[in-house]
Amino acid sequence: MAETATFDRGQNNAATHPKFLSVWDIQAYYGESYIVQGVSFDIHEGEILALLGRNGAGKTSTLRTIARLDDPALRHGEIWLDHKPLHKMKSHEAAANGIALVPEDRRIIPGLTVEENLQLAQIAPPIGWSLERIYGLFPRLKERRKQEGVTLSGGEQQMLAIARALARDIKVLLLDEPYEGLAPVIVQEIAKTLNIIRDQGITTIIVEQNAVAALKLADRAVILDTGSVVYDGSAQEVLEDEALRQRYLAI
Amino acid sequence: MLGLERKDTLLLIAVAFITLFAPIILNPFPAGSALAQFNAGYPDLMQRFVIFGIFAIGFNILFGLTGYLSFGHAAFLGIGSYSAVWMFKLLSMNVIPAILLSIVMAGLFALVIGFVSLRRSGIYFSILTLAFAQMSYNLAYSVLTPITNGETGLQLTLSDPRILDGDTGGGLPVTSLFGAEMRETTTLFIGPWSWDFSVGYYFCAVLMLLAFYLSVRIFRSPFGMMLRAVKSNQQRMNYTGLNTRPYTLAAFVISGMYAGLAGGLLAAMDPLAGADRMQWTASGEVVLMTILGGAGTLIGPVLGAGFIKYFENIFSKINDGILHQWFAFMPDGLENVMVALIHPFIGKGWHLTLGIMFMLVVIFLPGGLVEGAQRTGRMFRRRDRNADHVESDAARQRAAAE
Amino acid sequence: FTNAPTGSAVTLGFNVPQTGAYADEGADELRAFELAVEHLNGGGDGGMLNTFSSKALDGTGIMGKKVEFVTGDTQTKSDAARASAQSMIQKDGAIMISGGSSSGVAVAVQGLCQEAGVIFMSGLTHSNDTTGKDRKANGFRHFFNAYMSAAALAPVLQNLYGTDRKAYHLTADYTWGWTQEESIAAATEAMGWQTTEKVRTPLGAGDFSSYIAPVLNSGADVLVLNHYGGDMVNSLTQAVQFGLRERQANGQDFQIVVPLYSELMARGAGSAIAGIPGSQNWDWKLEDEGTKAFVKSFGEKYGFPPSQAAHTCYVQTLLYADAVTRAGDFNPCAVVEALEGYEFDGLGNGPTLYRAEDHQCFKDVVVVKGAENPQDEFHLVEIVEVTPTEQVTYAPDHPMFAGGALGECNPGA
Amino acid sequence: MDAILIQILNGLDKGSAYALIALGLTLIFGTLGVVNFAHGALFMIGAFCAVTLQKILTLSVTTIDPERTDFLGNPMKVQTPYVENWFGPELGAAIIDWAVPLAILLAIPVMVLVGFVMERGLIKHFYKRPHADQILVTFGLAIVLQEVIKYFYGANPIPTPAPSAFKGSLDIGVWLGFDPYSIIYPYWRLVYFFFAGIIIAGVFAFLQFTTFGMVVRAGMADRETVGLLGIDIDKRFTLMFGLAAAVAGLAGVMYTPILSPNYHMGMDFLVLSFVVVVVGGMGSLPGAVLAGFLLGILQSFASMNEVKSLLPGIDQIIIYLVAIVILLTRPRGLMGRRGVMED
Amino acid sequence: MGILEVKGVNKRFGGLQALGDVNLSVKEQTVHAIIGPNGAGKSTLLNCLVGKLIPDSGSVMFDGQSVLGRKPHEINQMGISRVFQTPEIFADLSVLENVMIPCFARRDGAFRLHAYETVRREAGIREQAEAMLADVNMLEKRHMTASSLSRGDKRRLEMAMCLVQEPKLLLLDEPTAGMARADTNNTIDLLKEIKAKRDITMCIIEHDMHVVFSLAERITVLAQGTPLVEETPENIKGHPKVREAYLGEAQV
Ligand SMILES: Nc1ncnc2c1ncn2[C@@H]1O[C@H](COP(=O)(O)OP(=O)(O)OP(=O)(O)O)[C@@H](O)[C@H]1O
Ligand SMILES: Nc1ncnc2c1ncn2[C@@H]1O[C@H](COP(=O)(O)OP(=O)(O)OP(=O)(O)O)[C@@H](O)[C@H]1O
Ligand SMILES: CC(C)C[C@H](N)C(=O)O
Ligand SMILES: [Mg+2]
Ligand SMILES: [Mg+2]
Q1: Can you tell me the distance from the alpha carbon of C291 to that of C306, in angstroms, rounded to the nearest whole number?
Q2: Is the CB of residue C131 less than 8 Å from the CB of residue C401?
Q3: Closest among C158, C144, C219, C233 to C188, alpha carbons compared
Q4: Considering only CA atoms, which residue is closest to atom 2 of ligand 1?
Q5: Which of A94, C130, C369, D3 has the most Cβ atoms closer than 10 angstroms to its Cβ?
Q6: D150 within a domain of the structure (yes/no)
Q7: What is the tally of helices (H) and strands (E) in chain B?
């Protein structure tokens, strides 16, 4: 389904190519440490992209940069979403333009109940799934909706974090290790959900250590190593090319 | 040397050098010149620099390492002072027993107050310590007047027993170290300069160096590391098999004893102990000193103490007359404009200047004065970027904290 | 001796509260010091130099040396005040320290000056202790004290409110408050009043309502406020708000007394002060020549009349200069000798004596009350009576002043 | 009995002041997590809004009255306020008389503005900084504000009387069947009490019935994540700060007839208000209000002679003593939330 | 008798029965896995073992002694270490210091006032810590501040901190979550190696079946707060109930 992108480095193609999300040569720093070292890729609408790499490769940092969080600081490069310049925005503006990040440590907000955590996501427009619909997908959350979010079990927190993203009307979903800490059955559930989400035209970037699971789901794969793209191609290819996996993912 | 690493040894030597030559360094302007106003090298102020330096060093052992922010440390300072003055009244004008008692008493109080207050953390701890100190202050000011002599402060009188000293003749006796009077001062005149070398100052300075050395040892010790770990993650400490309470309590008591030492020295230099020393503003002052200098750094608290005391004693004394002297070379109109411009910031406006300095420092030098020193240092040696900065590790830890 | 002047100038140290609650008093003190120095150095109109009974001073400084001064901030804290005084002595070579606006500070600095061997001419200090149990040979007080307030007030109170009164004291809980409470209670009891209650209030309490409310039902019909500064402003305003002044008790109108008064406090209390009696060391409305001369030079220089704080500090400076000149020596011991038992006139309050036994100055005391309809902001206080010296004089060994000794004068190093 | 009643009344009043100050402080400290040592200064600035309005209203034309002389014997300058010239002496005088309540109108915009400027210009940069830095910068600011006020208004208290309509006091005792004058309560204190009630209720309602409070709390706990949810938290923080400043300022305005404003009144209240907030429990508005009233009433009782004669000096330390007892028995104060400023 | 004996432990959170009558016996020197759906109560059970939570009823015996009523640090000193589900490390300290602290805890006990010695001089401790870091492939990161580690590295660090204590019982709550596959495999090897070298018992919670089946000798399946089955890995794989409640179609 996805056309394998060939990106002309050094040029901002976002305006001319009908790409949905374009990341062009982003370079980002934590203080003085140079972490995201010129990452470029682009995605079409409704595509699922697996962003892979070893620990410390810079996956999380890349997602955070796209979501326009303060850290790491973007010092060079451009990010375009649907013809809008994300790189000029702050995180809440990016969110208003349809970016949602499910962060790796889930970031459930202390002091708020499960339901409040969800309500919080629906304060600023655009609003997505209704609470009923969310609870339909995650009945576990419905049971626990009066409980303080941070006392949920690890897996439940993960569900809440994903649910919170769905509660907003989003164009791009950035998932940072969504399967971490989830029971296999739930992983399968979520995989299904992600397919549903894709069918609705939502574009997804998924970072996952469980590379096989992610690749199965994804159309494309981008592999990072020490902050740069070392592979950008079809997911299928990575699944099949043992040598490639061995080289970049050591699996 | 002395069981320290090279950079710590260098720091210690630098501090020793500066303290020993402080009477000269702090009096850079010839006496009688227009700028002599800025000279700080007279015994009383120099003593205050080092004494409050001790206070802040001790406070930093608690706050800088464990992150427990005590808002009642002045109580220990006050207790130290009262103990010392009582020792002068009852026993002898020798400063040694007085200071020993100060340290012991402050340590005991710190043990009790710390034991209770450390049951809570964060702001709850701060308020508990504040409450204890305020109670001490209020009681010392009023109900406990028989012990503290209330508002006036505890002073020596002619009728004090002083069992060891015996009769002292007509005047009030003075504090001494086995006969060397604390107030004895030799003034050295070289050209237009004049430098005061006082026994009291050197006594305090030696103790400050000792206190500083000890604090370096504590910072670099496993104990110091544990304290930093407490600050970082108490939970993990517990699940690692460490009992955090004795660690924090030990830090609290040690810093209380430092405060007691400082209080005792204050009384040894000037045998009066006032209740004001225990008020929350005094506790706040040491907090400000520490943060201003750079909490968690070795030398920061001393710098902070010097900074605040300098403003308090030097800026408050500049008056319009002095301003007119400075600008006398200008045409009259301009002179008056200059004086009017500067007037709000000096003399009775010294608080204003201090407030502004606080804000500037904290806004532009997030790590306190030490950070400022480092930046200047860095500017001078751009070349070797990777050079080890004396304080950089501590500063970094601090920046990462909270 | 300490800081013997060597050059062509002599340095005096003026240590006043520049920050804190008494900063306005401090500012006025400083104005007075500057004026005094100006006059000593021959500037201005000479002020009280013209009316002073001693003619030793001639406007050429002190013994031909130009008078210079340094200033410091006491912060109304004993500690800070001593630090500030120390620096004047050690760094600036001050040979005399003056100023201050609290008894605690005065006693503390007086002690310091004694040890350091310089003269201390205290500013505002009203506690009996300053020249009582904490008296020092190197220290002199021009201000009056709590005992003298009481002695002057008592007859006036008797005239105003009779002898059958029950008094309720609210007292600032520290040494000055206690001595004033003790003195007033003793003096009023001597004329037949009863003291129903003495209640100590914390310093800077702000809201005194919970201390004032019980007064209503205590059976008392006079409230004595042994407060000063902001505390007094607040307690008085609040007492008036609670309607104490409209009340009747024991068949008489309820009354409030503020034994120690000042114009600055009266300004703070606003209309609440109207009609309230109290005592002052001095008032600019006194009619003697010295006062007139001083008010004139001060008023012309600064645009408003001087406070009693200003007066005290001005006079202290002249007195010191005069004593040095008369002694012909800057040595503190010579100065002490010149001042002890010294009688003079022309510095306000009529003939005045510096008693040798305790270095307390004896002169007329001014009994005042708050003006009902002040014609302007400078007339908030009216003089009721000038109590003659004899009536406020006491024996040096009076029990309220017992326990201290001057010691010997200390000329220092 | 009546002695106790009257102390309860007094306590309520002191309590309302504590509660109001603590309320504002909790918004900044308990909710925004900023240790704001300048809060007392905000209270003080509020009080000086009243002073300023009074000064403005009494701005006067100066005429020379040759009949009378001033203290130096020169002809007397007579001041007539402009408002009396404009509105006639009676209405003019009445307006001046009502300066304190009118000052509310001045204080609201001024305080909100002060809050906005303070937050945007300074505090904003300190949310992520250690509490210690916040203390230093806000303490510095407090000193600066206080010195500026001192520079313009002097150090002595300035009388700001309540409107004469509220002079005098209400004899509550008579209603309850006690002797006249046994329980009286100044009218203005009643006004203050009700005023406090209204403000407290208003703030509660605002935070309870809107999501504002929840969002701000969430933003405090984790501003990054709240940003990810599309919420511009900065704007809300600024608003919250403005609100807190306004609450502090109004508390100050209305308190002026009770406590003549002076430049250090903020510092005097500062420590106490921190104690109240912490005893109430960090992050809890009801806690702050409750603690305010509780400590106010206890303090009133402790200042009764009967109590004081039993325990000398108790009135000076009662607040701290109670604070210690409460904090030792209840780990997070009366109603504190877990995790707020506990480390 | 196992080294760890949990008998009849109950824990409620308000209306929720998080643990219902849990019995568990872990044999000395075995690796015992606890698996189960999310929210089954696995972490809660561990919390009861290390003193973070106190069970409403039941008993927990370790090495013949009850752990209930003891403080967390006392329990640790008995020989139980735990790796948490979300990494608990000393974020402000360097990686090396993070590992040295447990070394001190092991050598000096719960408290010792060694305020005058210097850390530098503690060569033995440092070597120990460095050796441990080398084992988890983190030696070159030893001077980094722990907070700037990536997430997978934080987990490895925490594991190193627990291992270096040489506990008798090591509790691992999802130790490899978020770890790259290669590191997961390394971790498995490391745990195996440690197990072979020392008399250590391990109790491991994992959702990664690869890890579970590579390590575990016994597996307890927990569901809704109660143990469903306790079996050898082979038997678990085919267990229908387990498949339904937990594994789904996952390949194991
Ligand atoms: N706050 C920070 N400060 C400094 N460096 C950081 C910070 N956060 C991460 N890093 C560094 O940035 C690099 C990339 O980290 P990042 O978290 O993006 O990796 P990752 O690919 O997500 O790894 P993982 O799979 O372990 O989550 C790592 O070397 C890490 O140490
Ligand atoms: N402090 C608490 N208050 C209320 N409920 C809690 C608390 N802690 C845990 N729970 C609930 O108890 C249940 C068990 O939680 P636990 O963390 O033990 O699950 P788990 O088996 O570790 O799950 P996971 O595999 O997802 O980590 C969950 O439903 C959780 O929401
Ligand atoms: C300012 C003084 C006149 C009164 C002051 N309270 C004192 O202690 O003496
Ligand atoms: Mg990551
Ligand atoms: Mg779990």
Answers
A1: 10
A2: yes
A3: C158
A4: E148
A5: C130
A6: yes
A7: 18, 6
What is the pLDDT, as a whole number, of residue D200?
94
Nearest CA to ligand 2 atom 24: E38
Which residue of chain C is at minimal alpha-carbon distance from D263? C21
Place of tokens 């901030």: C73
Are B84 and B105 in contact by the 8 Å Cβ rule? The answer is: no
Mean pLDDT of B96-111: 97
CA-wise closest residue to B396 among B162, B228, B196? B228
C contacts of B152 (beta carbons < 8 Å)? 78, 103-104, 107-108, 129, 134, 175
CATH of the domain at D276: 1.10.3470
pLDDT at A99: 92
**Shortest Cα distance, chain A CAs vs residue D259, angstroms:** 39
CA dihedral angle for residue D270, residue D274, residue D279, residue D283, rounded to 10 degrees: 140
- B232, E92: Cβ pair inside 8 Å? yes
CA pair distance B351, C217, nearest whole angstrom: 45
Structure tokens at B36: 């002599």
Residue D275: give the domain boundaries: 2-54+100-329
Ligand 3 proximity of C124 Cβ (cutoff 6 Å):
yes
Q: B190-227: per-residue pLDDT in tens? A: 888 888 899 999 999 999 999 999 999 999 999 999 99
Domains held by chain B: number: 1
Q: Is residue B34 part of a domain?
A: yes
Where in the sequence is the domain holding B290, given as residue range(s)? 6-298
Strands D184-186 and D169-171 turn out to be antiparallel
> Is B334 inside a domain boundary?
no
Pick the closest to residue B238 from E95, E155, E71 (CA basis): E71
Measure CA C244 to chain center.
Answer: 29
CATH number at residue B227: 1.10.3470
Q: How far apart are CA E208 and CA E195, in angstroms?
A: 20
Which residue of chain E is at minimal alpha-carbon distance from A212?
A: E181
Per CATH, domain E4-79+167-251 is 3.40.220.10: no
pLDDT at residue A18, rounded to an integer: 55
pLDDT for the residue A7:
37
Query: Which one of A27, A29, A35 would you pick to mutate in the ligand 1 pocket, going by the greatest count of ligand atoms within 8 A of its CB?
Result: A35
pLDDT in tens, C10-31: 999 999 998 888 888 899 999 9
H or E stretch at D296: helix D285-302
Nearest ligand 3 atom to alpha carbon C130: 9
User: What pLDDT, on a 0 to 100 scale, did the predictor assign at position A64?
Assistant: 94
Q: Which among D217, D229, D337 has the least Cβ separation from residue A124? A: D229
CB E135 within 8 A of CB E160: yes
At B387, the pLDDT band (50, 70, 90 cuts) reads: very low
How many alpha carbons fall within 13 Å on the CB side of residue C413?
A: 13
Q: What is the pLDDT of residues C248-284, one digit of tens each?
A: 888 889 999 999 998 888 988 888 999 999 999 999 9
Alpha carbons A17 and A234: distance in angstroms, whole number: 19
In this prediction, residues B245-256 reach a mean pLDDT of: 96
Are the C-beta atoms of B279 and B75 separated by less than 8 Å?
no
What ipTM was reported for this prediction? 0.91
Q: Is the pLDDT of residue A104 over 90?
A: no
Low-confidence ranges of chain D (pLDDT < 70): 1
What residue segments make up the domains of chain E, in order of their start? 4-79+167-251, 95-165
Q: Where are the beta strands (DSSP E) in chain D?
A: 60-69, 75-81, 169-171, 184-186
pLDDT band at B153 (very low <50, low <70, confident <90, very high): confident
What is the distance in A from the centroid of ligand 4 to the CA of E150? 6
